[in-house]
From TrEMBL:
Keyword Lipoprotein among UniProt keywords: no
Stored Pfam families: MarR_2
Sequence ranges assigned to domain HTH marR-type in this UniProt record: 1-137
Keyword terms: DNA-binding, Transcription, Transcription regulation
Gene3D superfamilies given in the database record: Winged helix-like DNA-binding domain superfamily/Winged helix DNA-binding domain
Highest taxon listed in the record's lineage: Bacteria
Organism: Hoeflea algicola
Record-given protein name: MarR family transcriptional regulator
InterPro entries in UniProt: HTH_MarR-typ, MarR/SlyA-like, Tscrpt_reg_MarR-type_CS, WH-like_DNA-bd_sf, WH_DNA-bd_sf
């Protein structure tokens, strides 16, 4: 049970902010922000897709995704090409420059994750990751099931 003065959501948000700052520091030498890393990883995993689809995968607003992709395009990390079935849409794909950064960026993310996990005994780290995955899954389902 959480103390009356503590909110689990606030604690999770605080943890996310600290982890994001740690990740940002580790990605900076690669010329990537955490948001760019998320987009890069999603495009690597799912292949080329529209801005709308990518925003959905990452659960971010369209405007946020547009800003991130604009910076990535400016930095030569993505290319846009016309969508073959929708004249209003474009497909986003990674450039070779981005592909060269995928593994170093994943290593940076693993290093940031390890900083987070180092606060737990080894025996509890896998349990924490498992529980975090289940909580995230439950929250995503609740968000999808809720009206509005």
């Amino acid at each position: 049970m959480v103390d009356a003065g503590e909110s689990v959501g606030q604690m999770a948000a605080h943890l996310a902010r600290i982890h994001n700052a740690c990740l940002k520091t580790r990605l900076q030498p690669l010329g990537l922000s955490p948001a760019q890393f998320q987009a890069l990883a999603a495009l690597d995993l799912h292949g080329e897709q529209t801005q709308r689809a990518l925003a959905g995968v990452l659960a971010v607003e369209q405007a946020t995704m547009a800003n991130t992709l604009s910076r990535m395009e400016r930095d030569g990390l993505i290319e846009r090409k016309p969508h073959p079935d929708d004249g209003r849409a474009q497909l986003i794909r990674l450039t070779e420059r981005a592909r060269e950064r995928i593994e170093p960026a994943r290593q940076a993310a693993r290093a940031a994750d390890q900083v987070l996990l180092d606060g737990l005994p080894m025996a509890e780290q896998a349990l924490f990751v498992s529980m975090l995955g289940r909580v995230n899954g439950a929250m995503e389902k609740a968000a999808l099931d809720s009206p509005g």
